[in-house]
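Subject: complex prediction, re-run

Hi both,

The earlier run crashed halfway through, so I resubmitted it with identical inputs.
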Amino acid sequence: MNRSQTSGFFKAIGRVLPRQGLLTTEEERRPYECDGLSGYRELPLAVALPDQVEQVQKILSICAEYEVPVVARGAGTGLSGGATPHREGLLLCMTRFDRIIDIDPVGRTARVQPGVRNLLISETAGRYGLYYAPDPSSQIACSIGGNVAENAGGVHCLKYGLTVHNVLRLEVVLMGGERVIIGSEALDTPGYDLLALLTGSEGMLGVVTEITVRLLPVPSTARALLASFNDVEVAADAVARVIGAGVIPAGLEMMDNLAIRAAEDFVQAGYPRDAAAILICELDGTQAEVDRQVELVSSVLREQGATAVRVSSDETERLKFWSGRKNAFPAVGRISPDYYCIDGTIPRRQIGRVLRRIAELSKDYDLRVANVFHAGDGNLHPLILYDSSKTGEFERTEELGGSILSLCVEAGGTITGEHGVGLEKIDQMCVQFESCALEQFHQIKSAFDPNGLLNPGKAVPTLARCIEFNARHVHGGELPFPELERF
Amino acid sequence: MSALDRCDSIVAAVTEAAERETALQIVGGDTKSFYGRQPEGALLSVGEHRGLTHYDPTELVVSARAGTQLSELCTALANERQMLPFEPPGFGDQATVGGTVACGFSGPARPYRGSLRDYVLGVSVVNGRGEHLQFGGRVIKNVAGYDASRLMAGAMGTLGVILDVSFKVLPIPEAECTLSFESGEREALRRMNEAAALPLPITGSCYYDGILKLRLSGSAVGVSAATANLGGVVDSLNNRLWEELAEHQHPYYGSPLPLWRLSVPAAAGPLDLPGDSLIEWGGCQRWLCSELPAEHIREAVRAAGGHATLFRGGDRSGQTFQPHDPVLHRLHLRLKQAFDPHRILNPGRLYPEL
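This time it finished cleanly. Structure:
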């Protein structure tokens, strides 16, 4: 846009919004320059803060008319750069949509606006003995609209599913400004499953303005087991054994020694500092059921070589076991100037082998890696420790991250389990998908947003980009001209 | 039955149909030809493309070719004490994995354990351009790319010919128990909702002819504790009840009248529609045998926040599925265009224009 078009655009958007709803000065825009993936920064053209769905409709229709890209954002806790602004685009910040509209204790649903924090839903539904199951680590801060956009997971996915399994109905505004209802409070809707398609679509297909989620009864009992191992691969193999014994734990998490020590220094969760790995296994249900499962899982873990198994004796101790895991990311943040979180998922039986290979890669790249992850789902979260003030270290970190993701794909897994592709993993999409599948994704995108204005450049790479990426990464990760520095 | 990979010939058949722009009707075991609008086009059989392609019980994941019989898959899982948690009905011995996914059918456990689409992890399909595409995978968490695999569930083959599907599976519960309660309809609906709000292992519910039945499944101790909690009479006579309900072998389904499936919110009260009805899924799925005009039924169900499907019988030349509003209709047309631009895959089976 030229200067007069930009000023016409700002005027048109400004008329739609309440006072202080449109931020255009640099100092106002600066706080929005990145999401949780702070290595990627961009100043948006402007930031819009609507609080009514009609405003969102008008904004999207004006942006369509002026052909201005739109990036929707919630709390900005995402870890893949999905909400990184577009330099020539409007950042549509949905945080003022912060009302819980209704909780229906009979039908067990909550109708909420997209800016509502994940944890607030469970806190509010708690008075009816109900809760919202998906619990990403960022649940204190992250908003439910972002959870839908990313199909967020959490530590309880293995038993209770991801966001896609727990959302019933969405109100969505399309790029032209039309409002559409996807799903319903019934268990299905006729026609295509657009609810599944929209969930995890990373803001590429529409802007979610209202969400109805399913609530579950709070289990009457939950207990956690803390098992120590003196070998990472033995711990990894024990994960498959627990599942093989016919138990579906509410959560099954693993931490390696570097993560254990970092967490212990930070919150004193009572973890064994000398263990090579720990597993935290939560079992929930009725009292009798939990007692029986605790017995069964304890004996499986011991048989599999656990050096110690502790069982939480009360709620305080259960929460203490979890405190180290839930604070593991900030704990790692204390032992390194920066860290980079990877999100690949692999078949469970590959965990041991892939962790060993990650340790080798960590040596090759001379970067420390801490592992703290959803073992029950096979969802790895290697945290690469680096220092962004050292020249080239971030670039080396990204390259190590890319190698780990290629390793996940090669092991039969995927480049992202719950954080999304965003900007960060867009090149790895070329490893995961063949070009005709990527082309099909572009056509899905066009069906919703024919002019490609919603969150452009994210989630799905262009075929040209993949050709370029593949040319740089031939022969299983070996670069041509390895002597050249790449920044 | 021996495993056979017919992938290449299916892809070739679709490619040829795309070039000639001739319609194909996709058939697996031909058990669900009663469902949806009247099929049309040349037969494309996927029944021979069969066999399990991957099964590792400790991964809780199974993959099968589309023509694999559903019964063969369920037997292989049962041998490892695992199951498809959504309990899909087959509506015939020859039912296949591909047809089951295309129809998106789930059984009695649906409101408690989730639907077929909830357990789909990945698919491989041929789209209407003859391109062989893979979406999703064999891992439980996967958010790379749009969720095109779940999009295939219930799409009635109109977006792609399903070749291979991966499901998440779960262990078969150790114990099961059915409880009976005498009750009126309103009271039964209230009880279904109240029971679902308790942290109890409920996995099935049904109300018919003045009797509410609830099924509990889980560990033996868990089921017996829940039984004591809920009261009612332990129903030990009919072990096949839940299977009969899923497969429509229950006496209720003997009626010659058109069979309607009404999908409504759990908290919806009794619907004001005359005719013999049966309620399942905690109140969310209600069956109605009725010759009332479609618009009359749909209006009542829409008012309750749901939709109505002409499931079996009646006029299949009209809309068997509830029509969409104009914006949703347009999204459906564009998605169809994105996957099947020549409109050759099961045209008109789901909606007349798709």
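Chain B touches chain A through 82 residues (CB under 8 Å).

- K.
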